[in-house]
Amino acid sequence: MLKFKTSGVCAKEIIFEIEDDIVKSVDFVGGCPGNLVGIKALVEGSHIDDVIARLSGISCGKRKTSCPDQLSKALAEYKVKIKTKA
Q1: Rounded CA gap, 43 and 54, in Å?
Q2: Tens digit of each residue's pLDDT (9 = 90 or more) over 53-67
Q3: What pLDDT was estimated at residue 86?
Q4: Which among 77, 57, 62 is positioned nearest to 5, based on CA atoms?
Q5: Among candidate residues 19, 37, 33, 38, the one with its CA nearest the CA of residue 78
Q6: Is 4 helix (H, G, I), strand (E, B) or coil?
C-alpha cells in the first residue's frame, strides 16, 4: 500500500495499491464519500496510464485541482519512483 498526501482538496490522503501497472485498490481519507467511492469503483482494475489520462487536470469548483486530479498526480509520482528504482 502506498500513501499520497493531497494538496488543495478536501481529502487529506490517498492510499493505493498497484500491481503490474493495474490499480488494485484506492482509498481516500476524508473528502466527499459518495464521489470518492464512485472514483474508486471506476478506477480499480484499470491500467495506471488510463487512469492518469482520464483524471489529470480535473478541477473542483474554483480550485485548480480535485480529488481525481490528485489521484492522477499520485499515480504519476508512483510511476516516476518505479522508473528511478529500475
Answers
A1: 10
A2: 999 999 999 999 999
A3: 64
A4: 77
A5: 19
A6: strand
